[in-house]
């Protein structure tokens, strides 16, 4: 038997390489190449006409402690704040939806379709819809009877961004968690019941732990997306009233002004920040996703 | 290397290959203009412009294609949002693609595109501009040469409630006096577009111009907001927010929001573009002011105001291989017959003076008269090679002031600094 | 209100069971109402707005006074431009999803099942691909495809979309694959199946819910994509619906084509709902297959 096992192990490495090659090649092309190109370009200046000159880390210096430092760090803080709030809410709402749909006996299909509608509507349409609804003379103000300047003051503007993003993307979390719930074998609940565990104990001792991998992936990807939030603040407020995210800042300071070098530097910085956050998250949750389990 | 380590090593190898590939392909390319002198090349061309639900653009292109079967025009789609259209064009030009021959560009982009060498100079022999109104024409010129031909234009107008006010105000003082009427009727007095977007820059520039000042100098290289005139212009806006002449809600207004407020009967005066006139005059579910809408020139500090000149131009790509055809097509689009279609089918304001004097057209489109008067006094928006940066600077400085932080003097000082910085970066 | 899994509530005694069932029905009804309001209230406003003519679009009344199909006529009629966009979206989303899934299933199998060094590195590399801000990805991609003459063709839209489709698919599938009963695969191999056969016959049916969930997630994510598509498509030949909606123009320059945008949003939801209805039946079918097995 041991000879067969060793052969199998040797084949493992080769098979893995073969199975992973397509994925890695595609990603090298669509991400690796632009990323490294961006790093290269970020070291050059952006004259309006003429050849870009090598300026070393000037672009980075400008963003981190130079002329744009205030805006950069403010955008970073705003982005971080949005991410925390949005992901937490999406997790709560998504979990509630998943749990509810999981125990539905009838109306499963209706519930599933219902839940997916907010997510299926194209982001631009949804944001324009909400923008119209949030306008000072719009439906939301008509229903609440108040005259809130949703896009005109800091608190309401941030709340509006959060509401739109959570409304739109909680279904993504719900779907992922629902799939996770469906893979929990019934025997585990039976066993827990035999051990005398009540409904809440079953939830905390069986459901939540078994759901951990799906939750971790859902939260991780939502964090990555939220840190790159662009559409909603761009369309709703154009970054006014404390809603400028890092991606929006990059668009305003660099891409809209066709500053390729500076834009590359800002993108690289955004990438690094996101990388650090993801690393911290994986370390904190113990990387249960890929570690395998007993 | 042991097989089990293969995948990890593979990842590293793939990354290294990507590295080399990127390094090989990537010293940033210069954006110097291509060496072509004059326009050259004939053949089929593409025209990048916004979609048009009326079908008028298709009609124009059909007319050209029938007359020029060897030099057909294909339409390429442009986003209806100005920023997105700018990004799409910038990408195309940066890649030095010959895919786009004629492009519809915002009149404020001409200096930038010309300075970057993206659009070709259009000599007087290529396109005849004799009949085009002077103000729009100036938006197509950069360093004395013509780089873009105006296709359609626009100017800010004052709309007012004819049932509440019999004569529209001619100065800001008169406007403020008329606010008593608004108060008596429990509605807002005046609004423009003050959300943090390009429209705010337009409104601020308009206010500064209407007070006799300007945002930048004629060459577009120096900020000129440190003048008493500029201060008066900004003061008008800041104080109007403070004393309630402009309702607080106006800080969220773009064109459509302000139109909504006016048509809902919530405003006495509205600053907006000509498109509002037809919509406000027709009865409808959301329209409370049908039949009670009048149009007038904008008021200024001590006399008539200077409306901002909007509009879009036609430019020829430097990288186009059929520039001569492109020039002919541009000339075709600004010819009287096609400009007429522009007005009747697309609902856009033509750039030919003669059409505003055409009795039949004026009867059909009553707003043409008011618009013609506005176009006579209109001032182009600040011409700079960095419009995006300039606009952002104005937006950020002005928005905070209009929300109530600081005095008009602070706002003007901030504006001056921000605009100077934006101009310095290019 | 407890939300235990299906079939966990077994009440003792007929009186308690009647009360329990009553509460349960109420809870379910309430949940369904909440879910419906959450998802469909803004959608309702979207539909109402799409039925309002240009003249009435500013009204806040709950029902349109003079409903009209003019917006739908504009969107669907007029040289069938929008139908083309729907076709494009369907093709791009399907092809991208198919490619992403084929590559991701292989990669996930390798990561979840085979033993080799560098798993963390591979997963990290794949995840990093999902961290790069989209706006900076686009310009290098545009230049690349422009040089290859592929702008405004499907490859230019499918390949860059893999930049976010692949990482998502790989991570979601890996996290689900890890928990599959691999013992069954080994048992099948002992019974004489080759490895791929064992995977296909034994594992894949059990992994079906996860695979179909990933399919929906990737499909809708690609369907919603705007940034890449707007740069890579120049005509109706390749523009997906998100781009077609952004290129909708109002009757005059500053007029927002709100009614048409809303009509377009409604039209776009229909195929998505159909796709989900088809696939979600498969998810349940996959579940029952898994239940029989185990």
Plain-language structure description:
The complex is a heterotrimer of chains A (294), B (426) and C (294). Chain A is mainly alpha-helical and 294 residues long. Chain A has 13 helices and no strands. Chain A is 77% helix and 0% strand. In chain A, helix 3 (69-102) runs antiparallel to helix 9 (199-227). The radius of gyration of chain A is 24 Å and the shape is flat. The model of chain A is unreliable at 290-294 (pLDDT under 50). By secondary structure, chain B is α/β, with parallel strands linked by helices. Chain B has 17 helices and twelve strands. Chain C starts with 13 loop residues before the first helix and ends with a helix. In chain C, helix 6 (154-177) packs across helix 8 (195-223) and helix 8 runs antiparallel to helix 11. Chain C has helices spanning 14-50, 70-76, 81-113, 119-129, 134-147, 154-177, 182-190, 195-223, 227-232, 241-246, 258-293. At the B-C interface, helix 1, strand 2, helix 3 and helix 9 of B face helix 4 and helix 5 of C.
CA radius of gyration of chain A is 24 Å
- Proportion of strand residues of chain C: under 5%
What oligomeric state best describes the polypeptide chains here? heterotrimer
SSE series of chain A: HHHHHHHHHHHHH
| Major sheet characteristics of chain C | none
Number of helices of chain C: 11
- What is the end-to-end distance of chain A? 23 Å
Structural class of chain C: mainly alpha
Quick one: overall form of chain C?
Answer: flat
Tell me the helix content of chain C. over 70%
